[in-house]
Queue: 3 jobs
Job 1
Amino acid sequence: MLVMDNPRTKNFAPLHIPRPDSAPPWPAQVEMILTAIETGQHARPERRSLPRASYRVQAMLQLFSDMPGLPARDIYTRDANQRGLGFITPHRLPLGYGGMLEIVSPDGQMRTIHCTLLRCREAAPDWYEGSLYFNRQQMEFSL
């Protein structure tokens, strides 16, 4: 779901992307970790030049460095804008590597987007918090 919770984005109407009925349920840890991360961020000032809106969907990330035949990794998105997104994942990912992200965009379409992994650090035991940027701006994620 794309929800505007940043004061700098108050004038925008929230977008809602329902999870497909066929989508598997998220692990309980995902909601717990996302909530904990968001709670901790309220104390920090926004440093991004382009704010992100909350956007929670399950996506798949396949890195170009992955061995052939290795399945794409599950990631659970936190927030997004037209330049990138934040996520959590149970996979430790190598920084700076490029790949392909399969994600449902705010218009409800499945998209494949070229991206580069910017950050991946441990957020909880066996869970990692990270961000990636889109190699080209994705205007459907604009606020």
Job 2
Amino acid sequence: MANTIHLEVVTPAKAVLDVKATEVVLPGIQGELGILPGHLPLLTSLDVGTMVVKSEGKSRTFVLDGGFAEVLREKITVLTEACEGVDDIDIEHARQVMAQAEKDIKALEERSKSEPIEPDVMEQHRQMLKRAQTRLLLGEGKKD
């Protein structure tokens, strides 16, 4: 069995990451998934959350915007809407997006008392809030 697994992360805009890793932790929709070289094949949905890539004794952290992962014994392919390294997070922008999402959710909840709201609309705003909270949590954590 090899000591590394090839990780490829692709967004609609570009290939974001193409590295050899000793371990990859992904945000599965039912919890974190730890993937080591030689892992059994797996196809899974991903949630908004943190991806950790361990390689050459170092650990790098990224924010994933959901998606899918295909895990083979020697390769992981992640398809996601967005992938952002923790050092690239704009904390102020994350705060603004979080505040706007919270405001929009409150307005939708208030509106739902008098008229029906499409569940998809509320879910989109909740996902926006979750993305902003994850970015903010990781971005502020990098200062430690």
Job 3
Amino acid sequence: MDKPKIYLETTMFSFYYGSETTPEYRQHKADTRAVFELVKSGEYEAFTSHLATDELADDPNREKRIGMLGLVPEYGVKVLPFVGEAQRLTQLYIREGAVSPAWKTDAAHIAITAVNGLDFIVSLNFAHIVRPWTVERVRKVNFREGYKPIGIYRRSEVLEL
């Protein structure tokens, strides 16, 4: 059986190097690092996109920025482009109300996952990506457009798979 192909959205890289100290944040960070270790051990084949790496490159904290971008080669994360069909699907997600137009990049992360035939996207973005409304709308659009269903998961859900 092929290993599942997962898309790591920007928040996965950000939480890896997060510095907040609340118990909830520390748990998010630990779970995020555990997902990366599953990638390293070969449980998952990991992908991200140029959109995510561009977001990471914009982080004002130089040390964090270098660390986050370094995770891509360290864990063998493949970087996918945002072109053609992914752009069209992004617009459909926005038009169908899955993601607000104000959060186009979040819709694009999901579209890249679908267009490239990945199994699921992993995110800690609970406001725009990992939420029931988005999951349901994306499912409907993907079905109508002929894409296989994709999972949209929190990092803790990936650890339970």
